[in-house]
Amino acid sequence: MTKIKACIFDLDGVLVDTAKYHFLAWKKLADELNIEFTKKHNERLKGVSRMRSLEIILEIGGIKLDDETKLQLAEKKNSWYVAYISKLTADEILPGVEEFLKLAKSNNLKLALGSASKNSMLILNNLKLVDYFDSIIDGTKVSKAKPNPEVFLKGAAELKIKPEHCVVFEDAEAGIEAAVNAGMHSIGIGSPEILSKADLVISGLHEMNLDKLCVL
């Protein structure tokens, strides 16, 4: 057993469900482009960067656009998304999150955020969760998308903890792969079928306790 000294958390789907707001914003954009975009299509966007998400939607619609237009559309989607999440409150923190963050802190574990989101500070501030984290690595600090391990390795470096002493909490397949690629332990939040590469899969942080870290 390797002693876990740090927990690194993805944001969307782990601490808060902002996925519904991403979907609403992408759906609004797809409707403008006359592209049929369903919740099933939306599954393909999990853990994927904003530009790649747009490219997937354009592929679904069979539309090709120049880079400048794509940038403008991605910014338009983001402005709608930011408008949605600006209204977030602490009521939308997922079950068990705050309890586990408190438990981990009280047991001297270091905590980091490792998210592709460029809006993580806005979200964490609205949820009043910022103070729990010793390090916040988000889309403003990294250039490589998961499954590249950059976001998690930067988090470990800021915490001054070796990757093998870190555990990552992720709800996306690409995120679990990034954790594996970083040489870290991983706990999946969601479906065991999709997150089969994780060391352990739970349905949410309400199921988490320190004993489960001891068996990693």
UniProtKB/TrEMBL annotation:
It catalyses: beta-D-glucose 1-phosphate = beta-D-glucose 6-phosphate. Keywords: Carbohydrate metabolism, Isomerase, Magnesium, Metal-binding, Phosphoprotein. Its EC number is 5.4.2.6. It is an enzyme of class 5 (isomerase). InterPro entries: B-phosphoglucomutase_hydrolase, Beta-PGM, Beta-PGM-like, HAD-like_sf, HAD-SF_hydro_IA, HAD_sf, PGP-like_dom2. Its cofactor is Mg(2+). GO terms for molecular function: beta-phosphoglucomutase activity. Pfam families: Hydrolase. Belongs to the HAD-like hydrolase superfamily. CbbY/CbbZ/Gph/YieH family. This is Beta-phosphoglucomutase. It comes from Clostridium aestuarii.
